[in-house]
Structure formats: structure tokens, C-alpha cells
């Protein structure tokens, strides 16, 4: 019985040491934030004038970055779209943005980091 326990302990130790960590740390870093803003003004029996209002805005800010020393490549995307309705009027655009930025940089040391950059900015 003692030999069986010793054999079991030796084999279990062998199996526990034979496993290795095969997970690699990714060089890609992802980020993202999305949001929805809703605002309403409702006036009832208001003697000083004014109109009811309804507004909404969709927001997004996303990014991806690749880091492999000495190279760094990053992309950023910012989106915004919003509409407003005042009184009996139709909805009108109040926020409208599309912004895309890409940067490729190479680190030569503490004094010099050359880069290439591309930016696209327009309305939706």
C-alpha cells in the first residue's frame, strides 16, 4: 500500500510539472466606450413661454493599439450623432462627427520618435 501511495505521488507530481503556460500576452490593446444621451423638457401651464424639447445623442469612442517595441501602431475612431426636436418643428441635427486617426511610430530613443499619421474628419 505504501508503494502504491508513493507511486501515485510521484506520478501526480510529474503531471503537475509537465503543464506549461501556453497563453501569450497579446500585443493588441482594445478600448471602446459607447453612450446614449436623452434629454426632455416638458412644459405644462407655463406662463412665461417656451417650447417642449426632446434631444438625443449617440456617442462612440473606440481604439486599437499594437505595441511591439520599438514599433507602435494606434487607431482611434470617434463618432457622434444627435438630433433635437423643439416644439412642433421636425427633428434637426445638433451633433454630427466622424473622426478617424491612425498613427505609426518608431522609437529611436529618448530624443527621437519619428511617426506617420493620417486623420480623417467629416460629418456623418
**Backbone CA Rg:** 29 Å
Average pLDDT taken over every residue: 85
**Helix-residue proportion:** 10-25%
Q: How do the strands of the widest beta sheet line up side by side? A: 1-2-3-4-5
Distance between the termini: 77 Å
The coarse silhouette is: flat
Pick out the low-confidence regions.
Answer: none
Count of DSSP E strands?
5
Class per helix and strand makeup: mainly beta
The proportion of residues in beta strands is: over 45%
The biggest sheet, with number of strands, parallel, antiparallel or mixed sense and barrel status, is: 5 strands, antiparallel
SSE arrangement, N to C:
HEEEEE
Tally of alpha and pi helices:
1
Give the total of domains.
1
Question: How would you characterize the overall build of this protein?
Answer:
By secondary structure, the protein is mainly beta. It has one domain (27-122). The protein is 14% helix and 56% strand. It contains one helix and five strands. The protein has a five-stranded antiparallel sheet, with no helix packed on it. Strand 3 and strand 4 (92-106) form a beta hairpin. The longest helix is centred in the first third of the chain and has 17 residues, at 2-18. The radius of gyration is 29 Å and the shape is flat. 0% of the residues are buried. The mean pLDDT is 85.
Brief summary of the model shown:
The chain has 124 residues and is mainly beta.
